[in-house]
Amino acid sequence: IKNQPLVVWIIEYYSERPERLLVYNRVGELLIERLNPPTTQVIDLSGFSEGIYLLQIQTERKVYFVKLIKL
Length: 71
Prior knowledge:
Oligomer: single chain
Structural class: mainly beta
Low-confidence stretches: none
Mean pLDDT: 88
Number of helices: 0
Strand order of the largest sheet: 3-2-5-6
Helix content: under 10%
Radius of gyration: 13 Å
């Protein structure tokens, strides 16, 4: 049995607390959704294949996008 490497991103918020945190794959399928996440959030993509993912962080006033690349 092959052990899968741990692939996580740790997201910390310093100014605005997010209302929603979403992770999508390349074709736009929603993989992870967290409502009112805590100030420090761990995003674990260990169970997903290599590729590019899009992290969307929604606050009361803004929406942020971050590209995550899993090798």
